[in-house]
Specification:
About 35% of the residues lie in helices and about 15% in strands. It is an alpha/beta fold. The strands form 3 sheets. Strands 1-5-9-10 form a 4-stranded mixed β-sheet, covered by helices on one side. Strand 6 and strand 7 form a beta hairpin. The chain starts with a helix and ends in a 10-residue tail after the last strand. About 30% of the residues are buried.
Length: about 325
């Protein structure tokens, strides 16, 4: 029923869609905030699960009717399906908080990976063109139960160019042959939907903002090899809006949509970066591009991705050696 609601809500938005993937994520979060959502622990008690489902499905039916797409939902079918999941998952279900607390106490290595990007964050992103969760380091703490003081190193993952999925302002978007070329070369199509991602030049204004919000200690700059064949590459150092130069994006998405990128054009390297195992093995122009990104974002680039394989990365800074509490 979350999928049905997601698609019904997007259809209702008409000419102003958000660009949802249609996978039901938003309505699932709406249930959570409305305090009728189902949690994984609810699977351990089928009688309690039935009670929770009865409330949630009733709410879902009312919402679908209000959206002009009334539909009767089969409680028994949903219950049977999820009771099957319960049989498979029950032995893995536990109270996570004590497990996390014990790991932090013994100074275990804990790696948290964030979802999506900071500009899709519900609080700090380009609202309403956002997802329904917290896509920040603070969100990692909230979701995992790891206390903020236990975070020893935060790594920002940036592509060597910009992409965006769905609607919303994107000042550096390339609506030309270069954009088409980068999209095809990088295969920038949505994993879930297959939709073409929007592609643009590296946006230092956005990157500075997200680095500040998250307190990044270092950057992992990926997909440098996608730019290998270009004669020139550009970086948007900031924006110009109504004659004023901005270093970070305005919070109002309408104003962000009016921003003009202030580009710096740099010489391309016109040679493969794949196969490079040391930073100094990269072409001089590629090194200059990376160092300019460091200068503009004000965070060091610790890792450079030069290919799709796990081994195809240059480590300039051993991240785990920086762990300390």
């Amino acid at each position: 029923y979350h999928l049905l609601l997601d698609n019904a809500q997007e259809a209702k938005r008409g000419v102003n869609p958000i660009g949802t993937t249609g996978r039901g994520i938003g309505p699932a979060y709406e249930d959570k905030v409305a305090r009728v959502g189902l949690r994984i622990g609810d699977l351990t008690d089928v009688a309690f699960l039935r009670e929770r489902l009865t409330v949630a499905i009733g709410r879902g039916e009312r919402l679908l009717a209000a959206l002009g797409q009334p539909q009767a939902l089969d409680l028994e079918a949903v219950l049977a399906e999820y009771a099957g999941y319960a049989d498979r998952l029950r032995r893995h279900i536990t109270d996570v908080a004590p497990v996390i607390a014990a790991a932090v106490e013994r100074n275990a290595a804990i790696l948290l990976e964030g979802a999506q990007g900071t500009l899709l964050d519900l609080d700090h992103g380009t609202y309403p063109y956002a997802t329904t969760s917290s896509c920040t380091v603070a969100g990692l703490c909230q979701g995992s139960g790891v206390p903020p003081r236990a975070i020893s190193h935060a790594i920002g993952v940036y592509k060597a160019y910009s992409t965006r999925v769905g609607a919303g302002p994107m000042p550096t978007e390339l609506l030309d042959r270069t954009g088409d070329y980068l999209r095809e070369r990088a295969h920038e199509f949505g994993t879930t939907t297959g939709r073409a991602r929007r592609v643009g030049w590296f946006d230092a204004a956005v990157s500075r903002y997200t680095a500040s919000i998250n307190g990044f200690d270092s950057i992992a700059l990926t997909r440098l090899d996608i730019l290998d064949e270009l004669e020139t590459v550009k970086i948007s150092a900031g924006y110009r809006l109504d004659g004023v130069t901005l270093e970070t994006p305005p919070s109002d998405p309408a104003n962000l949509a009016r921003c003009e990128p202030v580009y710096e054009e740099m010489e391309g390297w016109k040679m493969p970066t794949r196969g490079a195992s040391d930073f100094d093995d990269l072409p001089a122009q590629a090194i200059a591009y990376i160092e300019r990104i460091e200068s503009l974002v004000r965070v060091p680039v610790a890792l450079v991705g030069v290919g799709p394989e796990r081994s195809e990365r240059i480590v300039r800074q051993a991240l785990w050696e920086q762990r300390s509490r």
